[in-house]
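Lay summary. Proteins are chains of building blocks that fold into shapes, and those shapes determine what they do. In this project we predict the shape from the chain. Here is one chain we studied, written as its sequence of building blocks.
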Amino acid sequence: MRFDGIKEQSAFTLVELVIVIVILSALGIMTSRYIGTGLDIYSDATDRDKSLNSVRFVMERLRREVSNALPNSLEVSGGDQCLTFTPIIASSVYTDFPISPSYGNTGTISPISDYNYSSGDKAVVYLLSSDQLNSTDKVNPIASINTDKDILTFNTAISFSLNSPAKRVYIIQHNISYCFIGDDLKRQVDSGEYVLMAENIIGSFKVSNATLQRNALVKVYFELDFDGQEVPIEQTLHINNTP
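And here is the predicted shape, written in a compact code that computers can read:
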């Protein structure tokens, strides 16, 4: 019996199917490794960018706050792990002030247009070291300020020990601390709670006191850890003000 018009149909053999499966498996393994490597690189780059952005934020925050610190108020403690300073709220020049040997409970200054009095504000005249922040002959609480903001009133009769060469008076209130604690950098106001500023970072602080040729300097050293690779970053901050 003849079957005209019917053609033979070809098909994959078992060997061919096995070869195709092996090739596809190899391509799948290579592709997954390629994608995995790319994801690892992306993850590492993202982590590095996150750490660097955190350091940039901290450096800018430090620069702004430290540059406006009260002259000679900076102090390093805790084995160079903590930097404490007193930011300036406002500043002016005094014309009539209770400077030794004079005593008085008021002082006349140039008007401060952008200053709003707050309970706890203190007046500082010619601070020479951070130890003098608790001295009543350098720092005294302000009881009130008149509406023209040119007369300060103190609680009692006081006397500042030394006259500022430039007749400067600074108004302060809080102390601020930046501390490396473990692998974190934290910020503290007075004796309040620590606030996290940056993670996975270590470092140190160093203060260079003012000289006749320059203002005081603060050197900040950061060290980041990228998969066992240490990346050092240094920043030098200038104190803008003088006593």
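What the prediction tells us: DSSP finds one helix and 14 strands in the chain.
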